[in-house]
Amino acid sequence: MNSEQVIEVRGLTKKFGNLIAVNNLDLNVYRGDVFGFLGPNGAGKSTTIRMLLSLIKPTSGEMKIFGRSISKDRKEIFSKIGAIVEKPDFYLYLSAYKNLEILGKLSGTDISTKKLMSMLELVGLDKRYKSKVKTFSHGMKQRLGIAQALLHDPELIILDEPTTGLDPQGMKEIRDLIIYLSREKGKTIFLSSHILHEVELISTRMIIINRGTTQVEGTVDELLKTDKIKVTFEIDKIEDALRLVNESSWQNNFKSTSKNEINFELTKNEIAELNKYLIEKGFSVSAIIPVRSLEDFFLKITDGGAK
Amino acid sequence: MITLVLIELQKMFKKWRTYIGIIAIGLLTIIVQLVLYFTGKNFVDAQMRGMEQSFVIVGNLLNGYFIARLILTLLIIHIPFLVVLVGGDLLAGEATAGTYRMILTRPVSRLQVITSKFIAGMLYVIILLAWLAFLSLGVSLIVFGSGPLLSIGSGIVIFAENDILWRFLGAYAFAALSMTTVMFISIVFSSLVENAIGPIVSTMAIIIIFLIVSAIPVDFLQNIKPYLFTTHMSQWNNFFNDEVNYKEIYNSSWILLVHIVGLYAITTYIFIKKDILS
After folding, report:
1. Structure pTM?
2. ipTM for the complex?
């Protein structure tokens, strides 16, 4: 992991009247990270992203991007950031090309026609460059949103739900694009997503927030490794096996049973030990299926998701 | 800043609502010109009735200047409606479309964004009045020819041909100042809401209320009348008086300018402080 901090947030708080949307949030994103930003609806993700992009003002706290204060060096910082905030909205009465041209000019760089067309080609909209955005589907707008975020070759890319509205093929393409931008181009990606599997696949580090506060932060591997995994054992002589489990210390790990399956909550080491124990006792284990995923971890951390 | 203003103008002139004012002015001007082309002589004769016995009128009174003066009088009270159609949408339109998120996450300051909107709004007013001048004065001079200007106000004044053009320029310039004030009021309202209808209705309501307040003969209301921008909006008429009262024009210009600067400052403050939640 590169130690250069790209985003540094300390004690970030945002209150809307009596409602605390973000509460004393700390964040660390390092150069080259694909940083997963997770949380249930209403957790404060979009509010945090809007504060990072100075769309809304924090009640208190400090935010630095590229080591500089957003309030003081906004122009320099924003020339190196590309972003999609929630759903990408464009000037519906203008063409895809014209929208990108305008946003390119606002980015302070003279973007050539060739570059604009290559961006549209990258997201598969080059054939529709003349079409007004009002004729676009949500998925096409989402792709155009990706194009505008990459237009000025930013160092930091903030993506808020970038695959929403895309078909599975489109989602995969965006995932591949994020991986390419991170690994090949060295971009730092800040990825907010509801699709946990997506974050699990492409993120290097992540944070889970709930009710505006940090629940956990770290590398994806670290976070998943430290927790117990739900595992299903497919086993013969199920009633005898259950009796054995209940009479042993494994009963503490027992969760549920159905047909020829017994569900446990185990660490990685315990999976091997239990498998050995059952075989030694004469049972035949036909399959061990881990059902542990980021989703379970997420639900556990956030008390079952959105509140 | 030039780039930002050009972008604003591009966006503005890609919207249909921008052309409503231009089309309306075009249609109304052409209608007035057509009517006067066929019945103008009777109209001028009616205005001059009784004067023929006292004065010898030489030259063509139904000329381009007369038509332009008449059109200006007829249309100027309606132009605020056309101006606020665009002004009300300048900021609220971005909020409605959700495009604030796109433009304000670029390396441009909010001050630059809001200033470019004000400049674009001001340019639209100038374009609209230039269009009015072109059609009502330029086209009328071509169709009806030149001549002395018969100006009917508190009395009847006839200006010599070489004493007219500067009066029109002054009147159009003052009208631009008045309409810019209206434009800026609509932008203030536009910065507060996420729908263009509200600013349009609010601005027109303010103009109507101020005009009614000005017309009520009560001491208190008459005392505040000099501070209402609507009182000063009709000062363009002064340019068609025999003796132009420059003191009144300067005074009204200053009051309108103070309004313009104040409205810009208020909107900028609101916009810079605003949380973008749309």
Report:
1. 0.80
2. 0.75
